[in-house]
Amino acid sequence: MKYKLLTVIMLVALSCDRSYTPKPEGYIRVHFPEKEYQLFDESEMFSFEYPHYATVERNRSANAEPEWYDLNFPAYNGTLHLSYKQLNNNLDAYIEDTRTLVYKHTSRSEGIQEVPFVDRTNKRYGIRYELGGNVASTVQFFLTDSINHFLRGSLYFNSTPNRDSLNPIIRYVKQDIEHLMETVEWK
Question: Do the Cβ atoms of 7 and 148 come closer than 8 Å?
Fold first, then answer.
């Protein structure tokens, strides 16, 4: 009996001697499906390919125009807002509006990278903006034929901006944005 009691006391004493080290905060693991695209051809002005895990619907906000669409990524709680404008000798104004909207994020951004896009064969020209840091919109772009069409896109997630946790998703969706830009066809 003495030995059993002594063993229990020693085990309790030894277990209380260890210090606890908390685990660092972690982020959830995200599953990324294989890339597979389908055609969106419901617009009267343009068409493009988008991923099968996304949905396209008309933008229903109060100030939305007829050719504005939302490309939703439900699994990632994000939306690529697409706004289309018909050009009427006002390309410079739309480009400047886009730059202004992108650079409004400067106070929160850790840098803005401008990636030019040129496809002379299909008359697609534009810039993709990649914003670093904890900003509301991490990827934005515009695409135009320089004469008739102007398409602007901005990616938003319905969560508090946290670049560390969103980075894998942003990289994954950025590939879809690049594919969209490469497959836009003007009508």
Answer: no
Q: What is the DSSP letter of 134?
A: S
Q: Which two tokens stand for residue 55?
A: 């949905």
Residues in the chain, total: 187
Please give the model's pTM, rounded to 2 decimal places: 0.83
Burial 123-153 (b: 16+ CB within 10 A, else e): ebbbbbbbbeebbebbbbbbbbbeeebbbbb
Contacts (Cβ under 8 Å, ≥6 apart) of 168? 30, 32
| Residue type (1 letter), 176 | D
pLDDT tens digits for range 103-152: 988 888 889 999 999 999 999 999 999 999 888 899 999 999 999 999 99
